[in-house]
Amino acid sequence: LLGFFMILFLCFTPDKSDHCFPSNKSSSNIPWLETLNVDGYFSFDDTEHAAKDFGNRYHFQPSAVLHPKSVFDISSTIKYIFDMGSSSEITVAARGHGHSVQGQAQAHRGIVINMESLKGQEMRIHTGETPYVDVSGGELWINVLHETVKYGLAPKSWTDYLHLTVGGTLSNAGISGQAFRHGPQINNVYQMEVITGKGEIVTCSEEQNADLFYGVLGGLGQFGIITRAIISLERSPNMVKWIRVLYSEFSKLSKDQEYLISTENSFDYIEGFVIINRTGLLNSWRTSFSPNDPLKANQFISDGRVLYCLEIAKYFNLDEYDSMNQKTEDLLSELSYIPSTLFTTEVSYVEFLDRVHVSEIKLRAKGLWEVPHPWMNLLIPKSKISEFAHEVFGNILSESSNGPVLIYPVNKSKWNNRTSLITPAEDIFYLVAFLSSAAPSSTGKDGLQYILTQNQKILDFCNKANLEVKQYLPHYGTQEEWQAHFGPQWEIFVQRKSTYDPFAILAPGQSIFKKGS
Ligand code: FAD
């Protein structure tokens, strides 16, 4: 089995200086598409959009884009390709909202499926004792939020940004400040409808087709296309008390974060970020927040040091205002932040969850949203985080960073380890997200090349110091790297591929398996 996949395996190292692979724009390399009977339609001329993503660096032109109106459109397209056997080179990529950063939702000369076409299907909310929402895989999380709060309900686990699709984040993990308590989004799914690489429509859950269920969750789109998901809900609060405090020592921040994620009745959201001089964050971290003690807050001077911000939130309804404030004060009294840097605000629950969209609107207005995004996300074991912070924030990034650097721990005990997601082995690990934006055409410290070199320096340090780091939203070019990423899980990943997508038709942009060679 492994031998078979070695042949299929992609040692796919696209030219790093140019990730553009144009394609013949006519339908001629897939002539049968025009004869396939679908409820939606194929488009052949406006495929540029499908060759773009948020990363703005990879541009693989597909031959066609399917705008499905039904799951049968997707299954019959894949089945047709599957029936052509291993000699056909045609691949299929589900495209959610295209917010990958390295071409993961693209298919060079293949077919991209615009999953958002499916989202028109009705969202069904079950309000009983175990509430859930039954939603299309192409639905945006922001729409799930707006619809569920109408019933006083909401999903438990989120991403920081909600203009992403359900299928897109469930193919990765979906990690945010609630994951310490509820696990990532992939741990809050009851059931899915999936179309495999053979074109079969399969319902799967913990009880039914469990191997496919766990394989698809965090499976980087390799085993099936998620067309529906049933997601667990909880009662939604009306309001959120949102708090930011600063630390000048990383050890104090991490001690407090680890205390908070392990305490009963803690905050409902726990994150943090690094404030590196000259990023502009030094001035903006408290915009829209009010100081607890305005006089002392004005006296606070940073001295150009690297600072660390703990970001926490407590959910509440208006009739719980006093008890929420008391609980918040009690929790804050246990922490060691710089006292003059306590800043708070109160916003609606929807405003809080949709907070990054506000920045998106501002950045778009300045033409700063559609720039290259050489993002890097790392999962770092707790035992190695201080060594990591010392070298990365104290040395590699001590002078500049080109965007937010998030850092917060999560409890693995709250995560289901049967999914395809790969994490470090320790019970507590940190997510560290380097969310850089590159200035187009710059060759300076804000340019793409500089940021990529900095990312590589961080990775080299992690390898050299043996920090046992895992990449989140990983992207590799060689067999050795993918195998090292999966470690002991590699064999099961390969086995699932041979079971559910034996001709490696699905998600070619992940560059894990290559079709037809
Ligand atoms: P796409 O980029 O369209 O697709 C991603 C992958 O999933 C591709 O391989 C694609 O083929 C596959 N895929 C898409 N739809 C399906 C489907 N229905 N079935 C099977 N496979 C499918 N992630 C976090 O965990 N936490 C965060 O806080 C967070 N914040 C973010 C903020 C921003 C501004 C951005 C741009 C990204 C953020 N992400 C975060 C990353 C995000 O979760 C992933 O990039 C996710 O894949 C994007 O969803 P999408 O719908 O755009 O997927």
TrEMBL record:
Q: Which GO terms describe its molecular function?
A: cytokinin dehydrogenase activity; FAD binding; oxidoreductase activity
The catalysed reaction is: N(6)-dimethylallyladenine + A + H2O = 3-methyl-2-butenal + adenine + AH2
Q: EC number(s) on record?
A: 1.5.99.12
Cite the InterPro entries for this sequence. Cytok_DH_C_sf, Cytokinin_DH_FAD/cytokin-bd, FAD-bd_PCMH, FAD-bd_PCMH-like_sf, FAD-bd_PCMH_sub1, FAD-bd_PCMH_sub2, FAD-linked_Oxase-like_C, FAD-linked_Oxidoreductases_BP
User: Which Pfam families would you find in this protein's record?
Assistant: Cytokin-bind, FAD_binding_4
- Cofactor needs: FAD
Supply one GO BP term.
cytokinin metabolic process
Among its keywords, does the record have Membrane?
A: no
All copies of domain FAD-binding PCMH-type, residue ranges = 58-236
The record's SUPFAM superfamilies line, in alphabetical order, gives: FAD-binding/transporter-associated domain-like, FAD-linked oxidases, C-terminal domain
Protein name as annotated: cytokinin dehydrogenase
- Which organism is this entry from? Manihot esculenta
